[in-house]
Amino acid sequence: MGRKLQTERKLLTAAKVKQTKEPGKYYDENGLYLRIKASGAKTWAQKIVIGGRQRELGLGSATLVTLSEAREMARINRKVAREGRDPIAERKRGTDVPTFAEAIDRVYSLHEPSWRNKKHAAQFRSTLNNYCAPFFGHKKLGEVTSQDVMNALMPIWLSKSETARRVKQRVGVVMKWAIAQGYRQDDPSNSIEQALPKANRHVQQRKSIHYDMVAECLTVIQKSNANAATKLALEFLILTASRSGEVRMASWSEIDLDLCLWIIPAERMKGKVEHVVPLSDRAKDVLMIARELGEGDLVFPGAKAGRPMSDMTMSKLVKSLGYDADIHGFRTSFRVWVQERTNTAFEVAEKALAHKTKNKVVAAYARSDLTEKRRQLMQRWADHLAKTGNNVVKISEVVR
Predict the structure, then answer these.
(1) Distances (CA, A) of 393 to 280, 317, 322, 378
(2) For the whole prediction, is pTM greater than 0.85?
(3) Among 397, 375, 370, which Cα is nearest to 239's?
């Protein structure tokens, strides 16, 4: 019965494809046919109805594509057409798919204007180029597999676990873009974490000093020969328990000396939410002294006019004076002091540090910024520093 059906359809055989020399068209199933030119060249083609119109697709040379392979391509094309899709357009899109290395640059260009941290933006491209491109940068986006991603991450998964985690996340960003563009249907980075060994997710703590040593550190800073703006910025940072960038970029337009408030706009905050800092008496004094440093909108100007000081300026000063502490560590000193020396409510302490409430339900109802309670807390912190800071030299004495 099989032979009779083959005879009736006059299906091609591998032998017939090889032996036939006469120019012409020799038909098979699903619109597939072998075209033999006068020159003897043999190619595969397919006639297929797409969107109500008969179209013709070239399927390659018969010397490179076997009969079984041509039949499989013809079957898939016909199935795609019956589903209402265009196999010609899809095949064209397939040839236009960028490599992973090319996609890195496209995705970077797309997101770079919206990334507020230029350093992190640069790391997006450099880490993907350094850790992924050598393994699968040459591959088309649709060809990248979970195995490719795993092979790239394995060398750093345990030794540089935080970097590896970020690289995996960045691969996901590229792949989500690829899915949106229609270049692939899935994200190969999603399924690999459970296949990799468990990484050490311990977060390295920022170095800090005991809260009773902070005033001593301030005294040493004030007695140093450092730039007055740097010393003022450090004291203000400690008094307000703020981040380095928030203080270095502080402008007079954000300061309300009458209400003793520092209102940091959302775009300058890590959490992208406006943060109001109630100022202690000493913090206000620091600002009044800073007024004498010169004109300009920056409260603590850098060495170059109109430019903020660098993060390294403050950090280098603290370490050069013998204190093994990170600038961010002063926030830790403040938080531990609150926990050990006061009965301040948890939410007040967290609000003072501009930490977001992780519980979404609680955050939805906790809409007060607790300004007055934080004002009392910041004054107590300033009083603690004054009390423990024996022999403190006022910065105003060294400002000329």
Answers:
(1) 18, 17, 18, 21
(2) no
(3) 375
Q: Is the pLDDT of residue 362 over 50?
A: no
Percent of the chain with pLDDT over 90: 45
| Sign, Cα dihedral of 292, 296, 299, 304 | negative
- Output the pLDDT for position 52: 81
CB atoms within 10 A of CB 373: 18
Give the pLDDT mean for 35-47. Answer: 91
CA 256 to each of CA 279, 294, 304, 374: distance values in angstroms, whole numbers, following the listed order: 10, 18, 26, 16
83-111 pLDDT, tens digit per residue, is: 888 877 776 665 578 899 999 999 999 98
Domains in the chain, start-ordered, CATH in brackets? 2-95 (3.30.160.390), 100-195 (1.10.150.130), 211-397 (1.10.443.10)
Residue at token pair 């075209």: 35
Dihedral, 72, 77, 81, 87 alpha carbons, nearest 10: 160
Better-predicted residue by pLDDT, 42 or 369 = 42
Task: Identify residue 373 by its one-letter amino acid code.
Answer: K
Burial of residue 67 (number of CB atoms within 10 Å: 0-12, 13-18, 19+): buried
Concatenate the DSSP letters of all residues of 184-217 into one string. Answer: -SS-TTTT-GGGSPPP--PPPPPP---GGGHHHH
pLDDT category at 363 given cuts 50, 70, 90 is very low
DSSP class of residue 42?
Answer: E
Q: What are 176-205's pLDDT values in tens digits?
A: 998 888 788 889 988 787 777 775 554 456
Determine whether 255 is exposed, middle or buried from the number of CB atoms within 10 Å of its CB (0-12, 13-18, 19+). Answer: buried
Phi, psi dihedrals of residue 28, rounded to the nearest 5°: -130, -150
Euclidean distance between CA atoms 275 and 266, whole angstroms: 7
Mean pLDDT in residue range 61-75: 89
CA dist 48 and 57 (Å) reads: 8
CA 143/CA 50 separation, integer angstroms = 27
Instruction: Give every CB contact of residue 179 below 8 A, 6+ residues apart in sequence.
Output: 185, 186, 187
Given a contact cutoff of 8 angstroms between Cβ atoms, the answer to whether 233 and 293 are in contact is: no
Q: What is the DSSP letter of 165?
A: H
